[in-house]
């Protein structure tokens, strides 16, 4: 009877947490759906692919990848960072169907990367660089969405690159938007931002998602502005393909051209997509884990398997390459999502909107969606984050700031790459300075210098130890203590032994304490055991 009671209690507790999570996940899925829809369409347009392909990729990213992924908050879909690769691939390969074959192969390659556990590379991204990437995405969102909030930007929604496809850049795009400002769009954006800020404070009605209210208000205001000086232009609305029948819907799907399997260029494109998509996914996953309020750690190898499966299916059905996307994922986190239910539901909403309510969706002004992304950007690039990184010290703050500047003025991967180089420089600098503890004692009139080696002494510490030993004064006693060392690199051991052998020429006495002649690299199991 007691066991039965515990089981019932466990079930009740499980139902409680499920209901509690659904209260957060379902409203969050609406926010992600509203953010994802124009992004899917805009990225497809910029990639030279059918608009349907963008929405289809969002559907697969939400339902398939969302279900298979081990991440609770990451959202997959077509990525702005891949538009150039897709456009070049379609042009080079000569047809969209041949490009789809490259996408199928890329999906298989990602699955292989997951199986060989290549996702562990994410563990080597410096924390300051990931924080910088998040802040940079926030700044980019604010700058890129501002034109949509005040007027119109001919470039696709959600572009992350400084140089845009419409021959503008981030700054000139803002200037161009201000030169053709639409006050109706401004009013809708300001009202939307006010609702996003103040609506959650009304506890009795806070159950209605602020983003949904923003969209409904935006539609109502745009209709009210018709026939006035505040009327919105056609290009200031969402444009989703309208499907009138089942036959028309199924006619939108494309099939990969497997007759081109021997085409060398197909394989080059496939490898490019697989590598770039995997890197963007791992970066986004690491970033999402940083802003997860529960601080869960997502399995990176499982994510590569999920993304590979998603790209494989997308290639078979006629979609675009997908990654875990930081813009959608951060919007998901900021909306309060708790589990992957939000990502999966957003995919279902994309499908429903395409099949049943495309005309209603096309009434949504881009300015109210821009307001949602402006708020997301503000939360990612908040002033308190800069203060927090400053207090961590220059070795954290400088890579953080360099990453922000590099991402804002180039693109995501190049910017993160530059930030990684600076971050690695500071890691090596710290590592080089801390291979040992140096302590000087006195034994009568004679100096006794104790050098206690660190737990891990790698070849990177070779130069620092060499310089220290060379500068030890004559007629000293030197104790090199390796009692705390788990591993000492063979190059360092050679320096120590050579120094001991030649020290008599300077009347220096060298004593080795617990320094072995050979060290094996510690195995992972041993490290885990020691931590426990």
UniProtKB/TrEMBL annotation:
Domain of life: Bacteria
An example Gene Ontology CC term for this record: membrane
Chain ranges of the SLC26A/SulP transporter domain: 22-398
Compartment annotation: Membrane
Any one Gene Ontology BP term: transmembrane transport
InterPro entries: SLC26A/SulP_dom, SLC26A/SulP_fam
Keywords associated with the record: Membrane, Transmembrane, Transmembrane helix
UniProt membrane topology term: Multi-pass membrane protein
TM segment ranges: 30-53, 59-87, 99-118, 124-143, 181-199, 205-225, 237-253, 265-283, 304-327, 347-376, 397-428
Protein name (database record): SulP family inorganic anion transporter
Organism: Mucilaginibacter mali
Lineage of origin: Bacteria, Pseudomonadati, Bacteroidota, Sphingobacteriia, Sphingobacteriales
